[in-house]
Amino acid sequence: MNIEKYKKGEKILIKGNEAMAEGAVRAGCRFFGGYPITPQNEVPEYLSWRLFEAGGTFIQAESEVAAINMLYGAAACGTRSMTSSSGCGISLKQEGISYIASAELPIFYANVIRGGPGLGNIAPCQGDYFQATRGGGHGDYRVIVLAPGSVNEMGNFPKLAYDLADKYRNPAMILADGLLGQMMEPMAFDFDWVNIDKLPPKDYTMTGCKGRERRIINTLLMDINVLERHNWHLFEKYEQIKANEVRFEERYTDDADIIIVAFGTSARIAVDAITKAREQGIKVGLLRPITLWPFPEKIVAELAERVGKILVVEMNIGQLVEDVKMFANGKSEIYFYGRPGGVVPTGEEVLDAIKRALKSRNVKLGEINHLNKL
Amino acid sequence: MKVFKKPLSMTPIPMRYCPGCGHGIIHRLIAEVIDEFDIRERTVGISPVGCSVFIDEYFDCDMIQTAHGRAPAVATGMKRSIPNLVVFSYQGDGDLAAIGTAETVHAATRSENFTTIFVNNAIYGMTGGQQAPTTMPTQKTTTTPFGREVKIHGYPIKVCEMLAPLDGPIYLERVTVHKASGVLKAKRAIKKGFQSQLDGLGFSLIEILSPCPTGWGLTCKKACEYVDEVMIPYYPLGVYKDLTQK
Q1: What is the CATH number of domain A251-370?
Q2: Which of A56, A115, A355, B126 could form a disulfide with B51 if both were Cys (CB 3.0 to 4.6 A apart)?
Q3: pLDDT per residue over A320-355, tens digit each?
Q4: CA of A177 to nearest chain B CA: how many angstroms apart?
Q5: Residue-averaged pLDDT of chain B
Q6: Looking at domain B23-242, does it have CATH number 3.40.50.970?
Q7: May I ask the CATH architecture of the domain A12-196?
Q8: Using CA atoms, how far apart are residues A274 and A260, in angstroms rounded to an integer?
Q9: pLDDT tens across B27-56, in order?
Q10: What does the H/E/C string look like for A285-335?
Q11: Other C-beta atoms within 10 Å of A212: how many?
């Protein structure tokens, strides 16, 4: 059996969730703990046999709470580990993610978002933007958030997530949605099979203290001065991540009269709307944040300065738009078009929103103008 | 000649437990066992939340501190990653039998190959003496000021009895450290729990009844009498499961 399964660059047709699972194993994942929840079930199902092939461990945990803590243990032992869930399951994992962020252990996890709040539904949604980009759990911390916009990125981002997680000793996640998870698309892995034995050694893992001083992984820092120092240390790390790891995609921004800011599935739909708009002579551009945290704040500020109107399209009632508003800093009119509850907008709807935003007059700079209610 | 000395697996840091508390005795027993097996250099201990949250200061081996109740899940991730590690979790009654019940039961039923030291002192010590899942009927705590009324607060959980019918656990024993004979038996039980792990057999749990004079509002002597007269009749000592010979 060929353990590597696919060659780098080999074109395959695969579901988003399975691409992500295969991408994780390919990137060195050897531990998965998770709990079933739709629409991400293909991830554990795939890994239940694939990790077995790769010599790793798959555990269907008793809860999301247990699953994330299994990762805490596996990552503490130096294993590239993964969990995945959706909305409510991630809420349960937030406790553990906070501990892992404080302990500075590298893990990779995915939220294939479903409709919320509460049990919501199982349709594609982007309502967990705040949960992901604000850390989500208790305390002052951040996680690196990657937002794929295709099955290709679903498959290739796990490698990026692991590399960033290891580099900064920080959790890194993929924020996808039910549509990206469930659909099939052609894709190709853009990286070779990662040989886990050749990954850089880690000097903080729990391996037994033979030949060295004992190590302690601890997130209880009772001395306020010590905890404050730890918080500032984390802050400095986050500043480094912000300086080095911002990723985004720009399209047609050079001549645009209006810019759409959208991520993931919404960005795909925006591309459809932009293509239609350009056929009609309407100059629309796209900014697609790929890292939702660190947020591409400089480019948002720059575009706000240059282009008079920004339209934020999201599958929620307005979350990314608040970041856009913050970094546009009153330099541009901000419009918002959103469909929450699992509704995926059409290109036509977004095109209509573009036209209404362009027609709007007397709009206060920096205010969020909701186009949904019109 | 045998000289009494501190186990090598303990640090010189003085413990900060109240007079009459059982934790210090239990720590020492674990350290003695680690020394006797000569496994300090491949042991990882897991600290819980509660009075023993500081055990990473006391054991001279790799130590990881975890969220309240989650030690069995963390231990699972560690042992599955590096099976050659010797992992013990050290958990109190609130940690293991309230907030972490699910993790305990499922680690036991998967027969994860680590050793659980479960300290049952019938109270939440660190947070100031609230009702534990193992608090005795009629026992006064800061959240049962009129005494634990089972019709209102429910019955104490008997952990060994609860886990024994599962197929997963290999070795379950309840011991006590409130008297010298109990301490000797507790040491044997801890040693057997570690042996079971070293033999790769699976899940072991040693429940240790431990006095908490401060939380109980009793003198040290009275607290020991309380273990004898009230706790042991409710939580009988003994082996609840032993598949180590099979």
Answers
A1: 3.40.50.920
A2: B126
A3: 999 999 999 999 999 999 999 999 999 999 999 999
A4: 27
A5: 97
A6: yes
A7: 3-Layer(aba) Sandwich (3.40)
A8: 9
A9: 999 999 999 999 999 999 999 999 999 999
A10: EEEEECEEECCCHHHHHHHHHHCCEEEEEECCCCCHHHHHHHHHCCCCEEE
A11: 11
- Rounded CA gap, B208 and B201, in Å? 21
Cα distances (angstroms) measured from residue A117 to each of A114, A126, A136, A175, A292: 9, 11, 14, 16, 20
Q: What is the per-residue pLDDT for B91? A: 98
The complex scores an ipTM of: 0.97
Beta bridge partners of A144: A172
Task: State the span(s) of chain A assigned CATH 3.40.50.970.
Answer: 12-196
Query: How would residue A135 be classed by pLDDT, with cut points 50, 70 and 90?
Result: confident
CA of A153 vs chain B CAs: smallest distance (Å): 28
Q: Which pTM does this prediction carry? A: 0.97
Q: Mean pLDDT over residues B87-91, rounded?
A: 98
CB contact under 8 Å between B78 and A73, yes or no, is: yes
Q: Which of A142-156, A182-196, A356-370 has the lowest mean pLDDT?
A: A356-370
Instruction: State the Cα–Cα distance between residues B98 and A295, nearest whole angstrom.
Output: 40
At A124, the amino acid letter reads P
Judge whether A168 is closer than 8 Å to chain B, CB to CB: no
Go through B29-41 and write b for each residue having 16 or more CB atoms within 10 A of its CB, e for each that does not: bbbbbbeebebbb
The alpha carbon of residue A358 is apart from the nearest alpha carbon of chain B, in Å, by: 52
Q: Looking at the predicted structure, is the pLDDT value of residue B197 above 80?
A: yes
pLDDT tens digit sequence for A4-16:
999 999 999 999 9
| pLDDT on residue A373 | 62
Interface membership of A31 toward B (CB under 8 Å) = yes
B215 CA to centre of own chain:
17
Boundaries of every domain in chain B:
23-242
Tokens 């993929």 locate to: A174
Q: Containing H/E element for A52?
A: helix A42-53
**Which stretch of DSSP H or E encloses residue B216?**
helix B213-216
Helices and strands: H and E segment counts in chain A: 12, 16
The CATH 3.40.50.920 domain(s) of chain A lie at: 251-370
pLDDT band at A363 (very low <50, low <70, confident <90, very high): confident
pLDDT in tens, B94-141: 999 999 999 999 999 999 999 999 999 999 999 999 999 999 999 999
- B72 to chain A: which residues are within 8 Å by CB? 66
